[in-house]
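Schema walkthrough. Field components (list of strings):
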Amino acid sequence: MTQLVALGADHGGFPLKEELLSWMKGQGYEVLDVGAHSFDPSDDYPDFAYAVAQAVASGKAPRGIIICGSGVGACIAANKVPGVRAGICHDTYSAHQGVEHDDMNVLCLGARIIGGALAAELVTAFLNARFSGEERHARRLRKVLDIESGTGPK
Ligand code: RB5
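Field assembly_structure (string):
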């Protein structure tokens, strides 16, 4: 099944983004590359995190991937956009369990932490996973959404 995946990175993640972009296209994924489109050592991760987050929150792309140096800044920025549930996952268990239990829709990666081979495995685990919908996970997700809406968990 092909699905549109939004992909973005700052200068810290740019080389890994280019590597992943090429690999993902080879795997048959449809990728929306929101930039950076060239290496610019003075660019800022919130710009690309926001572009990916907007694509996901608007429904244009069901899933997104953001890469910065550590994954931390990208994750913080993306989670500011309502509707986005971003997580940094540098192990495959988290990359699929975050979707299955938490309905994670944006994967954040740190290009100074992991290499291309592991990144490809993480992306595969993330994109192949589906939210389980089990009652306890749905209940917890509703509480997360309550927090997002400003009421706090009900
Ligand atoms: C950029 O140097 C670096 O701070 C950024 O890519 C990221 O690691 C932030 O979390």
